[in-house]
């Protein structure tokens, strides 16, 4: 049940297909793959870990060399649904695999943001959201994206964030507007086999 819309598909350099979505009801990020052009697919596996990332929205996926895939998503700790996640803080996470063709594949989850990118509920009702109430807040829209720097195979991230920086004074019924943020991977596994990540902080 792709109950939270925005399924995401990626193709690696060898032509293998990867598909992920947020499951309706559980709000887990599920992943499957196909090595025969979409004729058959593996049983779905859950990517978001229990605990701080128990509830997820807005997945986006990218693939690099054969068997290397990463899925980006917003997540928070357990709540009935994103629309009912009052008093919760949200972070950006990425689940990366360098052996996604194995059975089962091994994924490692990393938290991308050092501070929350959003507080309270995220409305998943699209144009039906009531923006005059916090429960109708969809101010992050769907601006998550992860891509690959082909120079070193690092993951680069663009995402909406209305929790990190101070906001202008708001009326009591107003909703903080997001900043568009950028960051990149500087350690860990490259998305390109035989490539080494560049740390360009200096």
Mean pLDDT: 89
Count of beta strands: 12
Main sheet makeup: 5 strands, antiparallel
Proportion of β residues?
A: 25-35%
> How helical, in percent, are the residues?
under 10%
Q: Please, how many helices? A: 0
The end-to-end span amounts to: 46 Å
Structural class of the helix and strand makeup?
A: mainly beta
Radius of gyration: 17 Å
Low-confidence stretches: none
SSE succession? EEEEEEEEEEEE
**Shape, per Cα inertia axes:** globular
Fold and architecture overview:
By secondary structure, the chain is an all-beta fold. Helices cover 0% and strands 34% of the residues. The protein is built from no helices and twelve strands. The strands form three sheets. Strands 5, 6, 7, 8 and 9 form a five-stranded antiparallel beta sheet that branches. A four-stranded antiparallel beta sheet has the order 1-2-3-4, with no helix packed on it. A hairpin with a 6-residue loop joins strand 2 and strand 3. The radius of gyration is 17 Å and the shape is globular. The N and C termini lie far apart (46 Å).
Quick tags:
single chain, 202 residues, mainly beta, 34% strand
